[in-house]
Specification:
mainly alpha, MetI-like fold, 11 helices, globular, phosphate transport
Length: 344
């Protein structure tokens, strides 16, 4: 008995099997158009960023060129010509002998401010980041940041009217006790308008900058580093000394250099407090010893004739070079220390 099986048509077409053809995706064209748009946006952003960087260099070069051109008459003039033309210019002095004491006073005032502000700023930053309760830390951080918004003229008024009666007895004690040290050689000025008072006011002014940057750097310390130190039995201070401070060393240096730049260029506070002089003197408790470049420009510019303006711009050129060198040195220090900061 033969059975007939139902046969189905062979689905294989003549010529052998054919692989399934991929269906075109609906989004291929859209993605292609999006890719072209992304490349265009990336190109535009790259050129915008490059132009912004080039603009910074162009502005810096323009400032330097302006200072050199305007200061050139004073740089090429002799001391006798400057003394005859400018009423406040010292007699028988050259431009270099005039700028030298100003550079010395500027650096000394900034160094005093940095020396007074940096330890306090690091302590405040560590307290906010690792010791204070969260609510107190946020409020204290806000207060510290608010100090940076106070105008420098307000600091000048505070330093010239309120601070001298408070610090005069302290400066007198320093002169009597440590007068053998050149910085505290007496007698201390009875007016309090001395470079140490200026350094104290500048320290308060740069304190928010150093504190804010240091605080943010300390908060970026990896938690595993801190937990490992605590797990090994370290106290909180030992954990900070071995994990937090090494990690944030480069950031603290950068913060200190930012504060130093602010102290170098401060004008009104120094002008309102300091009793000026043009001496190479380390006596920071005596009046009439030092003067800074910025305060000297502000004091003499209103009554300066064209040659006097050129002389003041020459001193501004010296301040520009000092600031540039300080920033370059700070970048070199940070670049050298970043490999040892613990971030790696």
């Amino acid at each position: 008995m033969t059975s007939t099986a139902s046969t189905a048509p062979d689905p294989t077409p003549p010529g052998g099997p054919v692989a399934d053809e991929p269906r075109p995706s609906r989004g291929t064209g859209a993605r292609r158009r999006a890719g072209v748009g992304d490349r265009g946006a990336n190109r535009a952003f790259r050129w915008t960023a490059t132009g912004a960087g080039a603009l910074i260099l162009a502005v810096l070069a323009a400032v330097a060129l302006f200072l050199v051109i305007r200061a050139w008459p004073a740089l090429t003039a002799g001391g006798a010509e400057l003394g005859e033309t400018i009423s406040w210019f010292p007699e028988d002095a050259s431009i270099l002998s005039f700028v030298g004491p100003l550079i010395f006073g500027t650096l000394l005032a900034a160094a005093l401010a940095l020396l007074l502000a940096t330890p306090v700023a690091i302590g405040i930053a560590l307290f906010i980041s690792h010791y204070a309760p969260r609510r107190l830390a946020s409020g204290l951080g806000y207060v510290v940041d608010l100090l940076a918004a106070i105008p420098s003229v307000v600091y000048g008024l505070w330093g010239s009217l309120v601070l001298p009666p408070v610090v005069i007895p302290v400066w007198g004690w320093l002169a009597d006790t440590f007068g053998w040290f050149p910085l505290f050689a007496g007698p201390a000025s009875p007016t309090g308008r001395v470079l140490l008072t200026v350094g104290l006011v500048l320290a308060v002014m740069i304190l928010p900058i150093i504190t804010a940057v240091s605080r943010e750097v300390f908060l970026q310390t990896p938690g595993l580093h801190e937990e490992a130190a605590l797990a090994l039995g370290a106290t909180r201070w030992e954990m900070i000394r071995t994990a937090v401070l090494p990690f944030g060393r480069s950031g603290v240096i950068s913060a200190a250099m930012l504060g130093l730049g602010r102290a170098l260029g401060e004008t009104m506070a120094v002008l309102m407090i300091l009793s000026p002089g043009l001496l190479y003197s380390f006596k920071i408790l005596q009046a009439g010893q030092q003067q800074t470049i910025a305060a000297n420009i502000a004091a003499n510019f209103p009554e300066a004739n064209p040659m006097g303006v050129s002389t003041l711009i020459a001193t501004g050129l010296a301040l520009f070079v000092i600031t540039l060198l300080v920033n370059m040195a700070a970048r070199a220090i940070v670049a050298r220390r970043k490999d040892f900061s613990g971030a790696n």
